[in-house]
Every structure is written in structure tokens, then in C-alpha cells.
Design a protein that fits this description.
alpha+beta, 157 residues, Pnp Oxidase, Chain A, 23% helix
């Protein structure tokens, strides 16, 4: 039996288009820790993603991933607030290789172009440290629509 992807090609194209990405984690006492992520790659099976998290991220994010693996990844397009959230469990992580860094840099450039389009010039974001990255492979357990409106929070098939 073939499993149905959680993230179809249309949603994958959106998620990888250069969005604002935020990673949320929590510790065993349910205290949150989060950071900005640089990029996301949807694997061909639609059931796994790789999130590129800056190594300079809050140490608590990596500690939480190491201890319980739970992660929520929220993505939004600044131009129209279209947004989605992927929840899952970290499988493993590694230092992003040069090819992965090129992919992450391309998505980051797309995000910066989005910000420029809504009036936030590059000078405002030039100090954001987003490289080098850890690549975090996540098994997707749920996907949600987070676009403001009547379907916000609804699970996506």
C-alpha cells in the first residue's frame, strides 16, 4: 500500500518559495524556544521536510530538539499573509553541505525580496545571522492552514 503524501506538490512549491520561517520547540517542562529558520525543503515523499536552522539560533532550540525532537515550523509569505504550519518529529540533523547552503541561500533571497516588496529594505535585515545552518530532517505528523480567515487553523489533507 502506498502512503499518501501529507504535503502535495502545490503546497511544497509554496513552502519552498522563499517565505518567512519560524521554528518552535519546547522542553520537557513545556517552556517554548524558537528561532528564525533560513529555508525548508520538502522531500519527494511529502512526509518529510528538511528545515535549515541557523547554527547561531538559540541554544535552547537545539537542546529541545535533541531531548524530545518535537518541532513546529510556521511559514508565511509577507506579500499576502498566506501561511502554513508543519508539525513533526526531528529524525536527525547535520551540518548543511555546500549544495544545501546554496538552496537555503536562494530561498532566503526570495524571502528578502518579499520583505523588500512590502517596504522593509535590506538594510533592516542585513544583521540577521542565517548561515551557516544545521539541516534538521523532520517526519511530518500534521499540516495546518495558518492563513488568516475562516479556515485558519484547519488541518490540510
Amino acid at each position: 500500500m502506498t502512503s499518501v503524501p501529507m504535503i502535495d506538490e502545490i503546497l511544497a512549491e509554496f513552502l519552498q518559495s522563499g517565505l518567512g520561517i519560524h521554528v518552535g520547540t519546547r522542553n520537557e517542562q513545556l517552556l517554548p524556544a524558537g528561532c528564525r529558520a533560513t529555508a525548508i525543503k520538502v522531500e519527494d515523499d511529502g512526509r518529510h521536510v528538511v528545515v535549515f536552522v541557523p547554527k547561531s539560533a538559540a541554544p535552547a532550540v537545539f537542546e529541545n530538539l535533541r531531548t524530545n525532537g518535537r518541532i513546529a515550523v510556521s511559514m508565511a509569505r509577507p506579500a499576502d499573509d498566506r501561511a502554513a504550519q508543519v508539525k513533526g518529529l526531528m529524525m536527525f540533523s547535520w551540518d548543511a553541505n555546500p549544495d544545501e547552503e546554496a538552496l537555503a541561500r536562494a530561498q532566503w533571497a526570495g524571502f528578502l525580496a518579499q520583505l523588500d516588496g512590502i517596504g522593509l529594505p535590506g538594510i533592516a535585515t542585513s544583521s540577521w545571522r542565517v548561515f551557516p545552518c544545521r539541516a534538521v530532517r523532520v517526519k511530518v505528523t500534521a499540516v495546518f492552514n495558518q492563513t488568516p480567515g475562516p479556515d485558519a487553523g484547519a488541518a490540510l489533507p
